Amino acid sequence: MDIQDLFDTPRKIGMFSGSVAFLILFPAYFAWMPLVDDGMVSGGSGASGDWEVGFAETPIVLQETQILGDGDTHDTFFDVASEMNIGYIELDIDCNDNDDPGPGFTDGADGVSDLSGVEGHSSGHIEDQSGDGMCSGGDSGFTLRWDVTANYSGANFTASGVSESEIRAAWNDGGLGRGTWAATITADISSPPSPLGSIVDSDEEYEITWTAMTYELILQPAAELAA
Ligand SMILES: [Ca+2]
Ligand SMILES: [Ca+2]
Which chain residues have CB less than 5 Å from ligand 2, an ion? Predict the structure, then answer.
């Protein structure tokens, strides 16, 4: 067989070209594969290293307003069901008593939670809390907060010498915090001690805000940022 027989039809030329391509690509493929196995190409999840850790937050908010007289109570409920991790749950009560002329006789509020309907209640850091505060405007009243993910702040940080799976194990809510968060708010109305007192001020408006801060963990190898 001479060289003419190798290339005497277009089909034989095509087969020869395909063989050449295979001879070049095959060694290249096997030279590259060990890099993937070592985690040098794709960065396997088991590799330790430096990571930029961030939290992409999405708040779930429920707000209601209640007008309450002295000693009145109001039960408020917040049903939480999230596919994402829950960083924290917050209950904020705001009020601003401007009914009384002059200083003094400022109204107040107090509240106590009932977390018996929450997954993880009393198993760790999801414990009932109470609070109180004056209705002096701005960020007055009181705020209760529970970290569902332990030590959650939402602030970015750099983790050194740990694997991706170790970070993901440390930053998740463990499936806790789902269920019905409840609290009872009680109004404390103060008015001048005169027959007209209750006409001057007999109630207060309370703004009740529940927030579930959910998040997605964002991990980037620190080396890639520096490059
Ligand atoms: Ca008052
Ligand atoms: Ca008032």
Answer: 97, 99, 107, 201, 204
